Amino acid sequence: MKIALGSDHGGYQLKENLKKYLKELKVEYQDFGCNSENPVDYPDVGFKIAIEVKNKNYDKGILICGTGVGMSIVANKIKGIRASLCHDVFSARYAREHNDANILTLGGRVIGSGLAKEIVKVWLNTDFSGEERHLKRLNKIKQEEDKIYK
Ligand code: RB5
């Protein structure tokens, strides 16, 4: 599994902590920045990673800003992206099992790295259930996307 990882300045510290954790888990990742706590605009990093995931250059993405909200808004603009802002383990599990989320967003100013690591572990290790009722709902999203993004 190959992960595209990125943050703005608000998520920089958490991103650096999660990089160490991903190494421990032996999960391959590419860091798309930012590279310091100097202010950068979250759409610049968020769109880049969402497009990489949409193009299937990476299996999944993890995007971190101050709240996780900006990154989630940005990533969900891209066709085929199902970004999930998860600040608890329950949501992380079901974002994968029910929603087949392909991007996780986190708020570096909201949660500590201990909880973030648990969320990342569960989110990465949970498969989409593939159940008919969830497929039907995801298909409805896809159908609307196909109409909107011609
Ligand atoms: C940056 O100050 C902050 O607005 C950003 O990290 C993020 O929280 C936006 O949603």
TrEMBL record:
SUPFAM superfamilies listed in its UniProt record: Ribose/Galactose isomerase RpiB/AlsB
Keyword Translocase: no
Residues noted as binding D-ribulose 5-phosphate in the record, renumbered to the chain: 8-9, 66-70, 99, 109, 133, 137
InterPro entries per the UniProt record, alphabetical: RpiB (IPR004785), RpiB_LacA_LacB (IPR003500), RpiB_LacA_LacB_sf (IPR036569), SPI_LacAB/RpiB (IPR051812)
The organism's place on the tree of life at top rank: Bacteria
Listed GO biological process terms: carbohydrate metabolic process
Keyword set, alphabetical order: Isomerase
Residues making up the signal peptide according to the UniProt record: none
Keyword Cell wall biogenesis/degradation found: no
Active site residues of this protein: 65, 98
NCBIfam families: PRK05571.1, rpiB, rpiB_lacA_lacB
Annotated family: Belongs to the LacAB/RpiB family.
This protein's name: Ribose 5-phosphate isomerase B
